[in-house]
Structure formats: C-alpha cells, structure tokens
Design brief:
- By secondary structure, this protein is α+β, with helices and mostly antiparallel strands.
- It has two domains: 3-95; 99-176, 2-Layer Sandwich (Alpha-Beta Plaits), CATH 3.30.70.120.
- The chain has helices at 3-39, 45-65, 71-95, 111-119, 148-158; strands spanning 99-106, 124-130, 135-144, 163-169.
- A four-stranded antiparallel sheet has the order 2-3-1-4, with helices on one face.
- α1 (3-39) packs parallel to α3 and α4 (111-119) packs antiparallel against α5 (148-158).
- It is elongated.
- The N and C termini lie far apart (63 Å).
Length: 200
C-alpha cells in the first residue's frame, strides 16, 4: 500500500479530528469562563476572552469546511464541545471567582454557629423569625466563593439539620467587606484571598 496514502489517512482520520477536538475543547472552555466573567461584571476580561474564543472556533470550523466528506471530524467537533463544557466548569470551580451570600435557617439555637462564623472572620447578620410551626433563626453571611466549602462544613458540623441556600453576588461594597485573614488561615494578600475590590 502506498505510504503517502497511509500518511493521508492518518492525518485525515486521526490527527485532524484530534486537532479539531482540542480546538473545540479550548474555545468552549474559554467561552464558559467568558460567560462567568460577564455575569460577574468583568467588562474588560470578558471581551478579551471572547476574541480568543471566536479565533479558536474559526480555526476549527475552517478545517471542517475543507473536509466536509470526513464524518470523523463531525464527531470530533461535537465531542470537543461536550468536553469543553465539562473542562470549563471544572476550571471555573478551581478559579472560584466572586463572592456569595449564604443564608441559613435553623430551628436550633444558632449561638454556637454564629460564634464560630464570627471567629472565622465572617461578617454575620442574624435575625429571629417565625416559621410555619415555630420560631427560627436566620443567618446571613457574604463570603468569598473560595471559602464556601469551609463555611458549609461548619454549618453541617454545628447545625446538621439546618437549611441553607447559596446565591452569587455580583457587587459588594468594599467598606462592608473588609480585608481579613481567610477561613483557611492564609494571608488575604494571597492569590485566592487578595483584597476584594468593588466590581466596575
């Protein structure tokens, strides 16, 4: 069999689909992060990521248009899109951008939980309220997203049956969200816990 024919098949049915797959993973990953930056009000980073997202997409789609009879490319394109969404979500979890508000509703006395959160450096607001059957305690706290897991672990430890909800916060006033030592004991000047600036 002709060596050039083997080389051509190797490129068309393995190397090219792999390149398309990786390109799709790259542009969808960037697109996922871009959408998150848009939701967080990062008006300078989002357009920059959008440029690279479209540039990579054009490279991938141009190769498919040049090889319309190669159905392996179609599969690689679709698989890359799916994998890119997954990789983008994993990356976003690692970056942990932004702040969140945690709401806790507990029927048990919340004094220990409140003291623990305050001792960790959290800003806490507590309110006594009336539930459907009995009195409850509402606790509100705004935290860095990177600290969410630690706060939830504390809630489960001190009030295992407490109901809690978490919501993203787009803007936060720096004056009421001061620099402090992180819940993990690291300096707030570290990469994950640098001073939070009000979003523009």
């Amino acid at each position: 069999m002709d060596a050039s024919f083997l080389d051509s098949n190797l490129f068309n049915y393995l190397i090219l689909p792999l390149l398309i797959f990786l390109s799709r993973v790259g542009d969808v990953t960037v697109g996922t992060i871009r959408i998150i930056f848009v939701s967080k009000g990062k008006k300078y980073l989002a357009p920059l990521l959008g440029f690279f997202e479209v540039f990579i997409w054009i490279l991938a789609i141009s190769r498919i248009m040049q090889n319309l009879d190669n159905y392996v490319n179609y599969f690689a394109y679709a698989a890359g899109f799916a994998a890119g969404n997954y990789v983008g979500m994993l990356l976003e979890e690692k970056i942990a951008i932004g702040v969140m508000v945690v709401r806790v509703i507990t029927q048990k006395p919340a004094d220990l939980l409140i003291e623990k959160l305050i001792g960790m450096g959290c800003r806490v607001t507590s309110v006594d309220a009336r539930g459907a059957k009995e009195d409850v305690h509402l606790i509100f706290s705004v935290i860095h997203r990177s600290e969410l897991k630690t706060v939830i672990d504390v809630i489960k430890k001190y009030n295992p049956r407490a109901f809690y909800s978490v919501e993203d916060v787009r803007y936060v006033n720096e004056k009421v969200f001061p620099v402090r030592r992180s819940l993990l004991g690291k300096s707030p000047n570290g990469s994950a816990f640098r001073r939070w600036r009000k979003e523009k």
